[in-house]
Design brief:
The chain has helices spanning about 15-25, 45-55, 60-70, 75-90, 90-100, 135-140, 200-210, 215-225; strands at about 1-5, 30-35, 55-60, 105-110, 110-115, 145, 155-160, 160-165, 180-185, 190-195. It is α/β, with parallel strands linked by helices and about 220 residues long. About 35% of the residues lie in helices and about 20% in strands. Strands 3-2-1-9-10 form a 5-stranded mixed beta sheet. A 5-stranded mixed beta sheet has the order 4-5-6-8-7, covered by helices on one side. It has 8 helices and 10 strands. It has a single domain (about 1-225), classed as Metallo-dependent phosphatases (Purple Acid Phosphatase, chain A, domain 2, 4-Layer Sandwich), CATH 3.60.21. The termini are far apart. Strand 7 (about 155-160) and strand 8 (about 160-165) form a beta hairpin.
């Protein structure tokens, strides 16, 4: 079965819409999200509603928890401002949808266990870049496909025991490519591929200008950093 893998949407609904349209074009129906659905950008309600409509299986990331707890104390000033703004505009129903997302999850597909964590199986705030990914994480999660987020940088790394995938960020890429990033994994074949897609940045800019969110957050989208 082919699964779409996404992460770190960060309330960027135009980017999520482009990714979901691309997944539909490619015939991928089931989607897993490695967290950080909200934070940073000005479409939190639209993003959560789009996720629910598409029946995406998602876990919470650190920004999601910060919004729910209205506690950005572990974040830089720009991220903290975005957390407080998001908490102030999130609808009660969307807050509920965000609150029931688990901290991690495991699905089974084609006799493979595929586990999803935001940071890592040992620490939800750990940044696991490609050079840090190790087979020990697969053993810790007791899976053959481990999906991680948090870094906003895509990679896929193979080991004798399985595969670790970070699909990169839908809503705020940090690898120098501003296009939305996602991956597709085929659990029958054991293959994985990363995809990039353009999205309506002008729609983001128009909504952003109607908020008091830090301008730097918008500027970094153009550079993919």
């Amino acid at each position: 079965m082919r699964w779409g893998l996404i992460s770190d949407i960060h309330s960027n609904a135009p980017a999520l819409r482009a990714v979901l349209d691309d997944l539909e074009r490619l015939g991928v129906e089931r989607v897993l999200c490695a967290g950080d659905v909200v934070g940073y950008y000005p479409f939190p309600n639209e993003t959560i509603e789009m996720m629910a409509e598409a029946r995406i299986i998602s876990i919470q990331g650190n920004h999601d928890r910060a919004v729910l707890n209205v506690n950005p104390s572990m974040m830089n000033p720009q991220a903290a401002d975005a957390v407080l703004w998001t908490a102030s505009v999130l609808s009660a129903n969307n807050r509920r949808l965000l609150s029931v997302m688990p901290p991690n999850t495991t699905v089974r597909s084609d006799r493979r266990a595929m586990s999803v964590y935001h940071g890592s199986p040992r620490d939800p705030l750990e940044y696991v870049y490609e050079e840090d990914a190790s087979a020990s994480l697969l053993r810790m999660a007791r899976c053959s496909v481990l999906v991680l987020g948090h870094t906003h940088v895509p990679y896929a790394k193979r080991f004798p025991d399985g595969l670790i995938v970070n699909p990169g960020s839908v809503g705020q890429p940090r690898d120098g490519d501003p296009r939305a990033s996602y991956s597709i994994v085929d659990t029958e074949e054991g293959s994985v591929e990363n995809h990039r897609v353009e999205y309506d940045l002008e729609a983001m800019e128009r909504r952003f200008e109607r908020t008091n969110l830090p301008r730097w957050l918008l500027e970094r989208l153009r550079d993919g950093i």
